[in-house]
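quick one before i forget lol
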Amino acid sequence: MIYIFSAFIVSLLATLGSLFFSEVMQFVPCSLCWYQRIFMYPLVLIFLFNLLFPDEKVFKYSFPLVVIGLFISIYHNLLILKIIPETLSPCVSGVPCSVDYLNYFGFITIPLLSFISFLTILILLISYKRRVS
């Protein structure tokens, strides 16, 4: 249960952080940021319901969301790092996906925080799956 609780905390912090950046700091999310939100926000509810009503199928429900969100965050980080050319960016109108709103210590960006969140949740889910199997 500690793994699901930890995953719940990480997804909750990621969700609140993204809402803080957009609603308080007034950072307009790009398309890739929205896609990552689409896969992060439901995880809060999935993990919360699993904490209230324990079910071993939580891995089956959350794993696809985490993996897809992780791949989008990897793509976004590669775009920010200019490894992927900006011409392959899905952000054709509005805020460009390569905009770097936050850059602490020269490397901590919002897409990096998203990647760390998805990766942490993935590790917790795999640990949970090994524990219950």
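fyi The mean pLDDT is 91.
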